[in-house]
Amino acid sequence: MKSDKVLLDHGSGGKISHRMTQDLLLPAFNNPILAELNDGAIFELQGLRLGFSTDSYTVDPIFFPGGNIGELAVYGTVNDLAMCGAEPAYLSAALIIEEGFALDQLQAIVSAMSRAAAHAGVTVVTGDTKVVPRGAVDKIFINTSGIGAIPPGVQIGSRLARPGDRVLLSGTIADHGVSVLASREGLSFQTSVQSDTAPLNHMVRSMLAAGPGVHVLRDPTRGGLGTALNEIAEKSAIGIRIREDRIAVKAEVAGLCELLGLDPLYLANEGKLIAFVAPEDTDAVLAAMRRDPYGHDAVLIGEVTAEHPGKVFMDTRIGGTRIVDMLTGEQLPRIC
Amino acid sequence: MTIKHIEEYRDAELARQLAEQIKRTSRRPVRLMEVCGTHTVSIFRSGIRSLLPETVSLLSGPGCPVCVTDQAEIDAFIEVSKQPEVIVATFGDLMRVPGSTSSLQAERAEGRDIRVVYSTMDALAIARNHPEKQVVFLGVGFETTAPTIAAAILSAAAARLDNFSVLAAHKTVPQALDALMSVEDVRIDGFILPGHVSVIIGLNAYRPFFDRHRIPCVVAGFEPADILQAIVSLIEQIESGKARLVNGYPRAVTEAGNRKAQEILARVFEPADACWRGIGLIPSSGLRIRAAYAAHDAGRRFHLNAVEAGPPKGCACGEILTGKKTPPECALYKKVCTPMDPVGPCMVSSEGTCAAYYRYHY
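^ Those are the sequences you sent over. The predicted structure of the assembly is below.
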């Protein structure tokens, strides 16, 4: 049943979001840089190649195990830039605050942003604050944009995966998605799962230094690993084959997913990346990832095939095969 | 159960051996129905279909609670959300299910207060926090979910939480199995019976059904090895011509089931006839809130009378739920009906057969 209203599904990062981007946004702003639909825009300005990205943060709850909306807003944009091969340098921050919001919470969020910026090595150089009447936003929304230069010779993009490339994943999946879900109001799970929110730009710099064969970088945030792999398969017109037994999910995360009927492949990560790397550079790049504090558990999870362009296949733990599709809409916990 | 324990049942080597055994022993073509939607998803997710020989066909049965909910019941859910001063609390699966003219998701976008909860206790908390509103919980699900909803009604009654009520559309599994066997043109050689439901009702609850039909039945857990083991047992029964009712999930299911849950269920609910999508009216296959708890029965409170409503035009959910058709045999599948624009409920629920076929490209 088609609705003439915007539904939450339109913001899920899955197929329904994609359709809105394709049908509404791309035609309106029609230009080749946007049409690439990378995590950030890549373009040249006066001889310098730049990465430029923006993102809005509306996470509920604003404080969750492992972080808050503040560091998420900084790391999210830092990571989007890093996934373009850019070295994040400057950020803007815009805060939209609901009337009545507690000042000490605002203080905590801004402090977290400041610490996160220092940790990632970026500077917040411009910003804006707006306060809106009660109910016009839910507590606080944050938008950050960021800019950074792309070093000469670095060519990263979601169209650049090629057959033979190895697929690397920097650690466990679904930590952020489950941490936020479990701490959401109305859910009374006692859990020690922490969000994985972290800056990935230092790891990316080491990876790019380790070898020239890094073709695609992506942080599987909204929509999760499953959706990110599908986007790359589609844009690069290649097939991807991954191994279920290589994809690590923390026991507690797996348990909660089991309970709620959610698939960790489609839950958000905020401190993980996937990399498509030429076979000859795989070992060096993987070693560079593992040296980084946020890439200890990096593993090879699969490879790119020429067959089945646009599709992602998974060899299951029990020796079967199945397709991994893109998420369609918001994942809804099941009844029984 | 610890995750480590579950891992044993996912053991690749064990699964491989079971798959080999199926290939070795299966001679005649068989149609096995997994009744439960959680089994359907597990089968797809673990790639079990890719390991089975051509002789073994798996059919998905009427075990996705959202899918079997009748169109008139869905319409009643949507209707109650439009009542003044009402907060509707629901499990997430129901949000996208299309009613005759709308869905809960579309109503929420229109401004109705509809909240997704993860347990009935969360719905009780909403009622406690909003004494000025009527909180209506949408009661959908089988014997697994119904006791928790009965417990919520008991809590509400004890706490005199008069603003909490349940719009109940619960269904019970054994009666549906009986009805399934009497549907015309249905060919099923064996049943993989639901694990969670059986934890509550116990193996004995299936005996009358089994004695009537003498068809191979195995209660199964949800890990790949559980399901493969159940298929091994069903094929062995079919090949030898000796039907049995087997408890293949003894680590969770007993003969008698969970008596405490059964008691709570029986205290609040009584058996009633129910309409199942695709099957129609099945005697004594539903649960009605007893008169003693009428105050917490949203159907009585809001005078909601189910208005008859047919299934969406062209939708084959009914035939799919009874194993008569597979999703690709439905004219709407993937053409008009997708998870983005679902026509029938089997395309909506994460455990719906059509959604599973779509997601895993069958």
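The longest strand of chain B covers residues 280-289. The CA atoms of residues 150 and 329 of chain B lie 39 Å apart.

Shout if you want it in another format.
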